[in-house]
Amino acid sequence: MVDSARIEPTRIAVSALFDELSKEEEEDDDDESGGCSDGSGWTQEELDAISALFDRPIPRKPVKQSKERPLPLPSPYKTRPDGIPTPKRHIRDRVRKNPQVLVKIARDIAALPSPESDVSAIPDRYAPFLRKGSLSMTIRELGHMGLPERALQTLLWAQKQQQQKNGLFPDDQILASTVQVLARFGRLKLGSEIKNYLSSASRSVLEAMARGFIRAGNLNLARKILLLAKDGRRTLDSSIHAKLILEAGKTPDGYKLASALLDELGEREEFDLKPQDCTAVMKVCVRLRRFEAVESLFNWFKESGRRPSVVMYTTVMHSRYCDRKYREGLALIWEMEGSNCLLDLPAYRVVIKLCVASNDLARAVRYFSRLKEAGFVPTNDIYCDMIKVYAAFGRVAKCKQLCREAESVGLKLDGETVSLLGEMENVR
Predict the structure, then answer these.
(1) CA–CA separation, 290 and 279 (whole Å)
(2) According to the UniProt entry, which residue ranges have a biased composition of type Acidic residues (predicted)?
């Protein structure tokens, strides 16, 4: 509301002003016509109307009140009382998809008091919540614990659940895991019926069986599975060949088998290898002096759109060093640097070997300095290679300096390097 005490003086002043104007007009005009002679003056009613405007309150703009946003309605699962159980669907998902629960089942089975104890009591507690494929992790965990018998008993329990119609069996995942565990511990007895058994087994079961035999060191049976699968025009995963090549190439007795497997792998129209498997096969090829196979795998890997790792680069450089292709090996170093691939200690060792074999003293010194700047400690063979390349250029002082440096860190030079230093002293 407007304060009437402040409006009143204003109204009086306006009234006085209009009164003076009216008097002046009356003096100038002798004809009276009700307070206005020519129609241009103000009447008393008009003055009262104008004065009444100042008596009205000035309206204020209404202030908008902020509305509080209502809180969202609570979700049913959040307002569930403590006494009401959680739906079985959530419990089922937590059991069949949770590795901790599946591993706990294996640990509970392993904790049974005696080997004669019945396994069924443990999975029976989780049976309503298990689904197809759930127990495969449990069986693998029992294999890691060294309990193949318990793994087989768990499979037999799952087979009995087929009558319950809960979807636990038949299941290739459970069967493959059990077969792999039994083959790994030598408990899988196939006998003369192996051909009939393999012809009816699925691919996943065959691959699991081969992996189990490979881990057990039974390469002959693993090889037999590959041959029977080939005769049956069934193609197993290429990683089986890679793992078998790796195991066979560990000893000279297996070089012949590894070479045959390598030829079979090269005959396949399509195959896919993980980077670590591809690098492992390359290392075996170097031992077999199959350098062309190393180059073929390296080109295939790059053409597949993947980026070689420093380990793969080092393996290929070592292959070219063994094949006496020193310049090609040095070209690979520049390719590594162009792709911003950081060198590790084994890579520096091979790089320095290539520089020494090429009699490239400048590059050998450069990479030897980079090795130290990167925080690596030179190994015994690196010191020996650097001493040899310095000796080839007659740098006796540098040879002695490196010899003292190697001895200060507790390294002992090989006999060839010591003999070389002795010859240089005699020449002087």
Answers:
(1) 14
(2) 22-33
pLDDT class of 321 with cuts at 50, 70, 90: very high
> Phi and psi at residue 308, in whole multiples of 5°?
-65, 145
Distance CA 30, CA 221 (A): 141
Is residue 312's pLDDT more than 90? yes
Contact predicate 329/320, CB 8 Å: yes
pLDDT tens, position by position, 343-372 = 999 999 999 999 999 999 999 999 999 999
| Continuous segment of H or E residues that includes residue 190 | none
Residue at 51: amino acid letter: S
- The CA distance from 412 to 403, in Å, is 9
Eight-state DSSP code of residue 146 = T
Q: What is the DSSP string of 218-286?
A: -HHHHHHHHHHHHHTT-PPPHHHHHHHHHHHTTSGGGHHHHHHHHHHHHH-SS----HHHHHHHHHHHH
User: For residues 282 and 312, is the Cβ–Cβ distance under 8 A?
Assistant: yes
CB 256 within 8 A of CB 281: no
189 against 38, higher pLDDT: 189
Instruction: Output the CA angle 242-245-249, nearest 5 degrees.
Output: 145
The label of the residue with tokens 């196939």 reads 190
Nearest-angstrom CA–CA distance, 189 and 195: 13
Structure-block tokens of residue 188: 């899988």
Give me the count of residues in the chain. 428
Q: Report pTM.
A: 0.71
The DSSP line for 82-114 is: TTSPPPHHHHHHHHHS-HHHHHHHHHHHHT-SS
Q: How far apart are CA 107 and CA 361, in angstroms?
A: 60
- Rounded Cα distance between 185 and 171, Å, is 22
pLDDT at 131: 79
pLDDT in tens, 377-414: 999 999 999 999 999 898 989 988 999 999 888 888 88
pLDDT digits (tens, 9 = 90+) for 195-252: 777 778 889 999 999 999 999 999 999 999 999 888 888 889 999 999 999 999 999 9
Rg (the chain; Cα; Å): 46
Contacts of 289 (CB under 8 A, 6+ apart): 322
